[in-house]
Amino acid sequence: MKRPIFVLLLVFVLGEVIAVLKLNIAVFIPVILIMVIIKIITKKHAGVFVMIFLFISLGFLNTNNKMLQRDVAWKLGNIEGEGQGSVDKILKTQYGYNVYLKNALINNRECGNIIAYFQSEPDLKIGNKTYLKGKIQQFEVARNKGNFDSKKYYLSIGITTKIAVKEYYVSDDNYDFLRDKLCTLREYVVGMFSKLCDTNGKGKWLYGNKAGIFSAILMGDKTELDQEIKDLYSLSGIAHILAISGLHIGLIGMFLYSLLRKRFSFATSSALTIAVVTLFAITSGMGIATIRAFVMFVLKLIGEILGRKYDYITAISLSALILLADNPFIIINSGFQMSFCAMITITIIWPKVVYLINIKSKIAYSIVLSLCIGIFMNPVIAYNYFQLPTYSFMLNIIVVPLLGIVVISAIAGSGMGFLSILIGKTALTPGCLILEVYTFLCENVLKIPGAVIVVGKPTIKIIVLYYMVIVFFLFCFTLVRKNYEKDCNIKEMIDENGKKVISSQIILKKQRKFDFKIRLAVVGISILSGFFIYYTPSKGLDIQFMDVGQGDGIFIKADDGTTITIDGGSSDVKNVAKYRMIPCIKASGTGGIDYAVITHADKDHISGIEEILNMNTENGLTIRNLVMPHVSYEDEAYDELLTAAKTKGIQVLYIKEGDTMKLGKVEIKCIHPDGKYISDNRNDYSTVLSLKYENFSALFTGDIPAEIEKSIINKIDNNYTILKVAHHGSKYSSDMEFLKKVMPAYSVISVGEDNSYGHPGTETINKLKSLNSKILRTDLSGEIEIFSKENNMEIDVMKN
To answer: What pLDDT, in 10s, does the model give residues 543-562?
Structure first.
């Protein structure tokens, strides 16, 4: 069998899929029958089919066992409990220490791997078995589309739950001496970078904020990494340099191997190199990219010892199989997806493209490689981050070759720093200079128009189809190239004497013409594929009631593509725009807000909009128009919002009763306040908007109290499809007479979990129930999204 490891990986994943989909065990019967039929037809050895069936079974059983552990941990909820496990890793954080425990038991039930949080440094070593008591805490799920899902992320790295430790003791003091010392070495190196980059006011421009970058690049420790640098690298498309990958493993391993080969045999040099690289991989944290690169490197050395040809597909397959066997959920990890996607591009796709377009220049090789990685990884990046760094292919042509110098500088600096801080700092200087170049390049590239394009989150079906199209055309173009080369080899010319000769000039001319056509075709397919994956047809009217905690945040996309927000703030979620609003809006494929409507200036309605106004455009969203209520009373919060908008050059519009916005088929009419309205109570002057689209209607009421509801009864329509319940469901709003006029089919309440205000009020809930209105709450359902098109309506919620 050709590439058996690749085949075993596929059948192992098939077993995982059967387990995840919770298919009946009887599904194995047709699998066995198919295998028997294939054996009879092909007359292959039975051992092949035994291995295939074995790996399907292993994939199924392994995944099923992990799912059982996951379900046990998740069902525990947030309770006081006790647990025990073996210490696998200890990490210092800004808030204390995270101790990773493997094979953990909580309340005497198997829960897989967990994290124990300690406020102070625990007296634990790698390999110790510990018993602890504390508060079991479940990881949070995403509250809105596009938000970070802690539960999903930690599951993808093999962690099921966490416990905040109150007391503990070591139940078995045996420990892993080697790994514990390597952990100490890691702490030393990270600490050394802090010392070397401690400027005390001198050389801050060069060494300042560099310790965290060096720690991430060499040790995989991002604890001290400056958030601004992290965001800058991510937006620019060079964040991959912060992960230990093949470049690090290859650089260290091949340098050492070449050095050892001058004195030792293949076997001895390989064995020593593998040992050192293993120690480095363990010290740097054994991340996903590190394990993948380590396995591939070791296989390469073993291949050289045995005199066997190195096969990239086999190496990639084995590393993926090892990772999936350890944690079947790792496949949903963005790091896993991008690491393997990059390797597949470099080892399989790029050589095919180079062959197709027939390039010889080394510079052209680099450019094509960078473009191939971008084109092939774009769907994965878009799926996880909803935006693409347009010029990352240009940056990486410069960044990647220089990274080797940064790594060597980091190794030399941390090593020599043991002898002298001055010598260590001197050795670190070349790396610091290159990191300054990185910062300069990233900052200036982001100033170019279109540096970051928001594309939204493509569906899995679209991504699969995208890759199928690329593979199909690569296959077709390869056949065309091979047929052309075959024709060139047999074509002959007849001279005037009747002799057969080959005209090199004619063949060269035809070659150039053919190359031009094939290059044009490859570029065309790449561009068309990009348009195909990111094109999203209009869904009609899309309204998203974002879960912003205790506050309001509504995003509307009209059928003509115009985007509107109504408020955006929270009183209990910090950085609500960064962590909840912006990812949600970008996941919808929107990078800008045409009209940001503010109903009133309470913090729980404007804090997110203020945050966006104070952000860089690349990090946040572009607001084109700020729409404020037209009132006579303007307080400090109102004025601050106006000032922030005007400082950013954003047009400020004022809305009052009777004003109407026509956006395609969507009509939005202002019901309240009128231009002469006077009140020193912000809630009283809340903007009230009535929206109509085909036979769909919605009423947005801000925080108006019952008195204002009564005053606008004669200004609103009867029987709305959707009511945004006033003031988070407060008992001081939702007047019964007003509700009877609105008669909402659905009532949406934007409210925070366990808020201190007691929202929504029991009285309000009872009134809505008496009208048979279906109640949707963001504290219970997370984001609530409503689609309406061609007189049909669909409601999606994030939870429950």
So the answer is: 999 999 999 999 999 999 99
> Model's pTM, two decimal places?
0.89
Give 4-26 pLDDT, tens digit per residue. Answer: 899 899 989 988 988 888 876 66
pLDDT computed for residue 522 by the predictor: 85
Of 285, 387, 337, 368, whose CA–CA distance to 153 is shortest?
337
Residue 620 CA to residue 592 CA, distance in Å, equals 9
By the 8 A CB rule, do 519 and 574 touch? no
- Max distance between CA atoms of the chain, in angstroms, equals 107
| Number of CB atoms found within 10 A of residue 715's CB | 14
pLDDT at 47: 67
CA distance 305 to 292: 20
Residues 396 and 346: their CA atoms lie apart, in Å, by 14
**CA distance linking residue 56 with residue 41, whole number of Å:** 21
CB atoms within 10 A of CB 778: 29
- Reduce the secondary structure of 534-593 to three states and give it as a string: HCCCCCCEEEEECCCCCCCCEEEECCCCCEEEECCCCCCCCCHHHHHHHHHHHHCCCCEE
Contact present, 210 and 190 (Cβ < 8 Å): no
Q: Is 53 exposed, middle or buried (0-12, 13-18, 19+ CB in 10 A)?
A: middle
Residue 620 is predicted with a pLDDT of: 73
What CA dihedral angle connects 206, 211, 217 and 222, to 10 degrees? -140
Buried b (16+ CB within 10 A) or exposed e, 530-547: beebbeeeeebbbbbbbb
Are residues 695 and 788 in contact, defined by beta-carbon separation less than 8 angstroms? no
β-partners of residue 693 are 696
Q: Which residues of the chain have pLDDT under 50?
A: none
Residue with tokens 């399907």: 56
Given this model, what pLDDT does residue 127 score? 95
**Contact 158/112 with Cβ under 8 angstroms?**
yes
Distance (Å, whole) CA 649 – CA 482 = 57
Burial 114-135 (b: 16+ CB within 10 A, else e): bbbbbeeebebbbbbbbebebe
Res 507: pLDDT = 66
Q: How far apart are CA 428 and CA 735, in angstroms?
A: 69
